[in-house]
């Protein structure tokens, strides 16, 4: 009787909700929950829990699902629903425990594997998540709606794992199965962008923005913001600013749209507006990437008291640290009589330690001391906020160049570099492959330099060094990159070179900060720091830029580089500056 009455009340609640009688519907659901508990019926508890969850009562739904699972721990439906609800509540480890336990009895259940895969993905257990989601996809084959959902979720996980080609294939499949599903269409457009199918990504985000429902401002705002991100990658800064503006017209405080507008303004050269707005990187989806000390105030620009230090929080990549190091002496002069305490990558500590105004050796990321405010530091500031306090535009970049210097003594093998015939060209040909592959084949770079006098010095570190072994012995440059211990060693080598030829990596920022002549090879859609359509850089007066005009095409920039160097190199010249 209790079970039947509980289910009857659920039907009445649905009717009342449809009639606009929300309070009465909630009363019916509460009574249904009490009757399901009295009946101690797992099926009734499960059904009432789903109704409560649908009405937004997650705590009430959780209590009933726990009761149902305890009564019948091997029954699939309550376990799957409990795991899914725990995931919604952010209790991922509990969700994993529940789902893995029941999976041992039903290893091929599609809904179970689907939910388990999503939980594992959010826990960062990529391989296990892929295994569960692939099992789920096999289990729903032929069920078109379910197949579309699982394929799209599997594609999204592959995208997050930097496997864009596989992600794109699955998301195209999901979109073909459910062409009207906006969530899947958005995921597909994002995968196109990740795979550098930029034109297609722009087209798909444009379609999503144009078709957003009139009564769905959140969906429309997301579509316009995503379009702005794609337009940035397409090097269309003004269009990106306009798209972000459309998103902000719907939600003036949307973090993603504000951040995208900031990047678009920076790319367009409007650094005065873009740099302050770049602070939105700390809001929304990207905020969790970087650790901060929430209990320490952000520095407001006021001078500190005698003996106090300012904590400068490192962020983003090596190149960002090197570019922004120019502000540290200016900051120390202005506000910190007790010096600056800076945290950075371990490979930077020796190089940055010689900058004026630092309070001792920088703290390396991962050092337990970097996880709490240092003594005497009443405030913190993030590296990318420094240009806001020292106004920076392409026409006026504060500080002097060079602002970096190699600390002494250098490595004991520098005499071997000094003995090489001049001019000496340092070479860097590969950076991180994600989010964009900025590398070019070493053989192609060397071919562009054939016939020019002097020595070639490999500065490359990391996986790109594998290309050296594939060259004939007589073609291999002098290998300094395999012998350096950190960027201070690299700086010492660069100081003995006549020029550095590099793609967009930390090495390029290091050469620029040292004032070493730099020839910089840039991908199409390069970072905002290099602006657009310029052959020079306001950040580094010693740099000359050579840009791709289309994706993955190095032929034109390498040809221009050769012409540039050939006009400056002679057999008798000690330098090609």
TrEMBL record:
TPR repeats: 221-254
InterPro entries membership: CellSynth/LPSAsmb/PSIAsmb, TPR-like_helical_dom_sf, TPR_rpt
UniProt keywords, alphabetically: Repeat, TPR repeat
Organism: Roseospirillum parvum
Protein name: Tetratricopeptide (TPR) repeat
């Amino acid at each position: 009787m209790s079970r039947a009455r509980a289910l009857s009340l659920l039907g009445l609640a649905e009717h009342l909700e449809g009639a606009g009688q929300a309070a009465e519907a909630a009363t019916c659901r509460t009574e249904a929950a009490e009757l399901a508990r009295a009946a101690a019926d797992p099926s009734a508890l499960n059904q009432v829990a789903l109704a409560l969850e649908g009405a937004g009562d997650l705590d009430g739904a959780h209590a009933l699902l726990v009761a149902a699972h305890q009564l019948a721990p091997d029954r699939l439906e309550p376990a799957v629903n409990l795991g899914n609800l725990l995931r919604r509540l952010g209790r991922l480890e509990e969700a994993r425990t529940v789902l893995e336990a029941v999976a041992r009895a039903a290893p091929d259940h599609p809904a179970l594997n689907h939910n388990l895969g999503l939980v594992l993905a959010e826990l960062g257990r990529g391989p296990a998540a892929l295994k569960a989601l692939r099992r789920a996809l096999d289990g729903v084959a032929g069920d078109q709606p379910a197949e579309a959902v699982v394929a799209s979720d599997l594609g999204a996980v592959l995208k997050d794992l930097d496997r864009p080609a596989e992600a794109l294939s699955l998301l195209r499949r999901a979109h073909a199965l459910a062409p009207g599903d906006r969530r899947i269409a958005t995921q597909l457009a994002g995968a196109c962008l990740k795979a550098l199918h930029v034109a297609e990504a722009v087209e798909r985000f444009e379609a999503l923005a144009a078709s957003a429902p009139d009564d769905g401002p959140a969906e429309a705002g997301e579509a316009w913001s995503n379009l702005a991100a794609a337009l940035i990658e397409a090097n269309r800064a003004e269009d990106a600013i306009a798209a972000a503006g459309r998103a902000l017209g719907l939600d003036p405080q949307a973090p993603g749209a504000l951040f995208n507008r900031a990047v678009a303004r920076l790319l367009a050269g409007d650094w005065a507006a873009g740099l302050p707005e770049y602070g939105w990187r700390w809001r929304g989806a990207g905020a969790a990437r970087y650790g901060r000390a929430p209990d320490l105030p952000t520095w407001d620009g006021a001078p500190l008291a005698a003996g106090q230090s300012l904590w400068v929080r490192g962020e983003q990549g090596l190149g960002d640290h090197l570019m922004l190091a120019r502000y540290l002496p200016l900051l120390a002069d202005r506000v910190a009589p007790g010096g600056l305490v800076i945290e950075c990558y371990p490979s930077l500590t020796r190089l940055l330690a010689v900058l004026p105004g630092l309070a001792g050796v920088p703290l390396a990321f991962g050092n337990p001391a970097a996880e709490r405010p240092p003594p005497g530091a009443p405030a913190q500031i993030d590296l990318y906020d420094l240009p806001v306090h020292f106004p920076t535009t392409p026409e006026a970049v504060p500080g002097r160049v060079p602002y970096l210097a190699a600390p002494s003594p250098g490595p004991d093998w520098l005499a071997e570099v000094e003995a090489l015939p001049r001019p000496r060209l340092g070479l860097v040909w590969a950076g991180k492959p994600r989010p964009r592959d900025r590398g070019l084949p070493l053989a192609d770079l060397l071919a562009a330099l054939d016939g020019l006098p002097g020595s070639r010095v490999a500065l490359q570190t990391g996986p790109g060094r594998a290309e050296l072994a594939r060259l004939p012995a007589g073609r291999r440059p002098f290998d300094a990159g395999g012998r350096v211990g950190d960027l201070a060693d690299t700086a010492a080598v660069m100081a003995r070179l006549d020029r550095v030829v590099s793609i967009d990596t930390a090495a390029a920022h290091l050469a620029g900060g040292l004032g070493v002549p730099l020839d910089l090879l840039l991908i199409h859609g390069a970072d905002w720091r290099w602006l657009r359509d310029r052959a020079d850089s306001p950040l580094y007066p010693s740099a000359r830029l050579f840009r791709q005009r289309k994706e993955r095409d190095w032929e034109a920039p390498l040809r221009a580089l050769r012409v540039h160097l050939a006009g400056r190199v002679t057999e008798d010249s000690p330098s090609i500056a």
